[in-house]
């Protein structure tokens, strides 16, 4: 890696013994997988929740949205806490909150308590960046780079693991049984963390910028709310536009607060570094495209034959379509650390974006057979896996070890916003392609959405290539 870390010198790490490292690595992977899978449990259960709790589908949708919201808000705060001396306590306390939330989703309580439980589960999404900080502090440099890349990948493919399992349990035992899976695995993650998480290196401090956290939370709540409430844009455009303007103002205020703070929640000056800013831009636009294709394929697979297309798959069978996504995503994550010895991380980002764009092209051109959907999902998984594995390398090349959790947490906030917008854009395009009196959009609407996705991945590719050119000019002046 080239370049000097921004934001000050790194604090010396304390690598764990080799035997402890063998236990630490699978523990980091397991925790990252669990928090990602549990947060995604809402996706296959929306219909079951609506039926079981006698609420509308829009209300049931909040079981997913509220987890994303709480995760986006909690991530930068946990990232800052994870940069300080109390990282182990932060990890354990957060997992305890996730376990408590999981219990709320299982107990026979009203719908409002289910939403509270899902919000608590979503907070666990902020632990991914902390897992990266632990790996970077306590593993040898070469080993830690590969582990950080895999943690990033696991945080993506966790949805593919949790989706079919939750759908199967919902079919066999109802929605409470599906959420029971979350309680079991989060309790196991808490026990794993208690047994394996080392203390943070000495000499660090982390003060949470409360004012910055509040302003950022308000801005993110508005952004993700607007992304999830598609009806607001179609029925009350002026209100939606006004709220969007408020969100932009809040983000500007937050940036000013962070620049003036001596202990910022996120080091905005470091975020402005060309490598970090470019990586976050690529993550934002790429996240829009990646999640757009994921939602398009799963929705297409479940559309009944009566619409003139689709396969009418049950929730569980549709979840199996995600298996190629998870499997090839993991393969890409394992291959990337080897490839990056010869190819720079920004070029890996660009290549992965091209692969995702190929998945869009495949979906746009061929989707009349279920095997073609499996193929498109596999291509998407391979591209997303490579992209996710390469992303930390771009950011951490100019980030001190002490700021790993904070820097990556901001990147994950950007990713969450990109994913939410990708889902919203897909919904808007398909809604626009739904004729009066029709329940399902025209098949051509899926093609239009795929072309939009190709455009997003083209922008991501160009941004990544610009990063690569800058890296090359710095290395060879």
TrEMBL record:
Q: A Gene Ontology MF term for this entry? A: transmembrane transporter activity
Show the stretches that span the lipid bilayer: 23-47, 59-79, 91-113, 119-135, 147-170, 176-194, 206-227, 233-257, 278-297, 309-335, 347-367, 373-398, 410-433, 445-468
* SUPFAM superfamilies, per the entry: MFS general substrate transporter
Q: Domain Major facilitator superfamily (MFS) profile, which positions?
A: 21-472
Which interval of the chain is the signal sequence? Answer: none
Q: Which InterPro entries does this one have?
A: MFS, MFS_dom, MFS_trans_sf
The alphabetized UniProt keywords are: Antibiotic resistance, Membrane, Transmembrane, Transmembrane helix
Provide the protein's localization.
Answer: Cell membrane
* GO annotations of cellular component type: plasma membrane
Q: What is its main location?
A: membrane
Q: How does it sit in the membrane?
A: Multi-pass membrane protein
PROSITE patterns, per database record: MFS (PS50850)
Q: Name one GO biological process term.
A: response to antibiotic
Sorted alphabetically, which Gene3D superfamilies does this protein's record hold? MFS general substrate transporter like domains
Q: Which PANTHER family match?
A: EXPORT PROTEIN, MAJOR FACILITATOR SUPERFAMILY MULTIDRUG TRANSPORTER MFSC
- This one is known as Multidrug-efflux transporter 3
Q: Which organism is it from?
A: Streptomyces chartreusis NRRL 3882
Coding gene? bmr3_12
